[in-house]
């Protein structure tokens, strides 16, 4: 049965280190779902398989595969009886402290999720060795454990960035234009309250026309389209995973009225919110 609110998974009450970071076996985590993540999640499979549903998208993982899921996503994980592997959960506060803008330095954080298909033997061994060291450090809890884990995590994230860069054949550059990364970061924080391209352009110290040009060149859509897409993603999450009424969802997303929300949703999705909810009933 759907609940009024989507259950939240956070690290506040877990056996985590400063601010926080948690490592453990995949069988220790996220048995019940779906839940909204309030931390970033990495899962590496060493045997068996699992299925993870991320905002309605189903992905199967086998031995030697890894997946990253961004904080804020709604996930449900089904684990096979013979599955084994490692989970790494961490918050932005743990990784970056007060330096929020460092988040934009990693290409992986610009995605809702990133699935790395099966590794070659050499690559698999490297990732497995790194995660073994991280787990040992986490469980031993010695002096400066947080700093050591942060360093290991930085290596892991950099390796994932290489995978992304390889996928897109852009060895000589990061995801182009730092401003587009910063825009995505701001959009994630303010999509429900600020829908004007000028708001984001102002915060990025660029013109609205230039921001639109960046969005068109790098994302294939206008700034306004990206804002609307993010609102629709959240609306679909709430319709699929909660029992909130259409009126309540409209209010939560700060629409002036439910009728305006319905019109907005139908224009962008092609069906009404109620029809979307009925089509996605389990």
Automatic annotation (TrEMBL):
Q: SUPFAM superfamilies, from UniProt?
A: Homeodomain-like, Regulatory protein AraC
Q: Give the range the annotation lists for the signal sequence.
A: none
Write out the entry's keywords from A to Z.
DNA-binding, Transcription, Transcription regulation
Q: Which GO terms describe its molecular function?
A: DNA-binding transcription factor activity; sequence-specific DNA binding
Q: Which Pfam families match?
A: HTH_18 (PF12833)
Q: Note whether NAD occurs among the keywords.
A: no
**InterPro entries attached to this UniProt entry:** Homeodomain-like_sf (IPR009057), HTH-like (IPR037923), HTH_AraC (IPR018060), RmlC-like_jellyroll (IPR014710), Tscrpt_reg_AraC-type_HTH (IPR020449)
Q: Where is the HTH araC/xylS-type domain?
A: 181-279
Which superkingdom is the protein from? Bacteria
Q: What is this protein called?
A: Helix-turn-helix domain-containing protein
Origin species, per record, is: Chitinophaga silvatica
């Amino acid at each position: 049965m759907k609940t009024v609110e989507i259950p939240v998974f956070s690290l506040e009450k877990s056996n985590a280190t400063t601010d926080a970071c948690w490592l453990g076996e995949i069988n220790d985590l996220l048995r019940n779902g779906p839940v909204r993540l309030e931390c970033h999640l990495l899962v590496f499979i060493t045997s068996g398989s699992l299925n993870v549903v991320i905002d309605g998208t189903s992905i199967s993982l086998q031995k030697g595969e890894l997946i990253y899921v961004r904080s804020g996503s709604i996930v449900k994980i089904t684990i096979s009886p013979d599955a084994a592997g490692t989970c790494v959960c961490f918050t932005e506060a743990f990784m970056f402290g007060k330096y929020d803008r460092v988040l934009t330095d990693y290409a992986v954080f610009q995605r809702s999720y990133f699935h790395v298909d099966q590794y070659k033997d050499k690559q698999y061994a490297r990732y497995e060795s790194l995660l073994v060291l991280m787990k040992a450090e986490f469980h031993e809890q010695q002096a400066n454990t947080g700093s050591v884990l942060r360093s290991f995590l930085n290596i892991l994230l950099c390796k994932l960035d290489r995978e992304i860069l390889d996928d897109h054949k852009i060895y000589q550059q990061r995801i182009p234009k730092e401003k587009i990364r910063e825009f995505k970061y701001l959009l994630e924080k303010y999509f429900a309250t600020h829908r004007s391209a000028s708001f984001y352009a102002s915060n990025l110290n660029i013109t609205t026309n230039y921001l639109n040009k960046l969005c068109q060149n790098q994302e294939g859509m206008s700034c306004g389209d990206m804002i609307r897409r993010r609102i629709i993603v959240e609306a679909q999450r709430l319709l699929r995973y909660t029992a909130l009424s259409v009126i309540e969802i409209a209010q939560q997303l700060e629409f002036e009225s439910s009728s305006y929300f319905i019109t907005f949703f139908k224009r962008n999705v092609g069906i009404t919110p109620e029809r979307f909810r009925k089509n996605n009933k389990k």
